[in-house]
Amino acid sequence: MNKKKFTYKKSGVNIKAADKFIDFISTVSAKKRGKKKFSNIGGFGSITNIPNNIKQPQIVACTDGVGTKIEIANTLNKFDTIGIDLVAMSVNDLIVQGAKPLLFLDYISINKIDLKKLKAIIKGINKGCNQSECELVGGETAEMPGTYEKGKFDIAGFAVGVVGKNRILNKKKIKKNNLIVAIPSNGLHSNGYSLIRYLLKQKKINIKKNKFLKSELLKPTKIYVKEIMNLINNNLINGCANITGGGLSDNIKRIIPDKLSAHLSLDKIETSEIFNWLKNNGISDHEMLKTFNCGVGFCLIVESKNLKKISKFFSKKYKPYVIGKIFNGKNKVKLNGSINWSQ
Q: How confident is residue 227, by pLDDT bands cut at 50, 70 and 90?
């Protein structure tokens, strides 16, 4: 009687392919590490030192994904930028606390290991870590046949940063008459893609044949780490907010003290072409403001005397500009006027 042999590979899991991918990650991250002692890729955990020049160091941790933007990447068969998005979504949250990113880990779950696809994702993650001046120290790749459809996958990121106890950006530093300053986004970043995909489906738009959308929909999220850390090190900001899901109102509200309110002038917001396209294709002002960053990727709360000093830390593309002010009130965000959408 012949006994049927059962193997992990026959079930859909290829350990050899996973090992090859781990070797590739080690090679990619080693190029960046240089003399630093991050050498445990493939081990059970990653070990690093807390910088010794930080007084009373506090550890800050964040995690996030890129949502259904990965479906756009699958449709266009382009995976070299969503790794940057993955890093950005976590490190941009870290710096809101005043923390300098130290290390990053990723989690990739996929129906079947596709080395070409995974290598492109990892290269993007490594590029995002370079932009953030943090280390890719490890992660996990899970091959999960039967859980995902053919070609489908998901990614998540985990970032750890450090900040001195007396340098933490908290609500107490925000005062009446502080200015609210917008930092431009690099387009959509990584929010609102379920609404975008719904719109595309309803309007039967093929993004493979639309040059404008092919260019816009996979633009990577802007990483603000270098600029914001420079501002923090020069004591030029009292607070900041990463404008992600929930838009300007919800994200700014999270950092405003209970007895103060933020008043925003929507007519001062400078939108980019992709947001105008979405608005002109049937998305209401309310949905635009609730779902997308509308051209503002990050916000600063600053004293008016520091406004000119702040500008020198940004390139022309991301030049900051005032969109509001802090007033007395009960932790509200008041939206005045309306955005001037271009036709």
A: very high
Residues of the chain with CATH 3.30.1330.10: 15-33+56-166
Task: Please give the mean pLDDT across all residues of the chain.
Answer: 90
CATH number at 171-186+222-336: 3.90.650.10
CA angle in degrees (0–180, nearest 5) for 112-91-276 = 85
In a 10 Å sphere around its CB, with 0-12 CB exposed, 13-18 middle and 19+ buried, how is residue 327 labelled?
middle
> Which residues face 328 on adjacent strands?
260
Band (pLDDT 50/70/90 cuts) for residue 188 is: very high
Length of the chain: 343
Cα 172 → chain centroid? 26
Q: Tens digit of pLDDT for each residue in 132-157? A: 999 999 888 888 888 888 889 999 99
**Whether this model's pTM surpasses 0.85:** yes
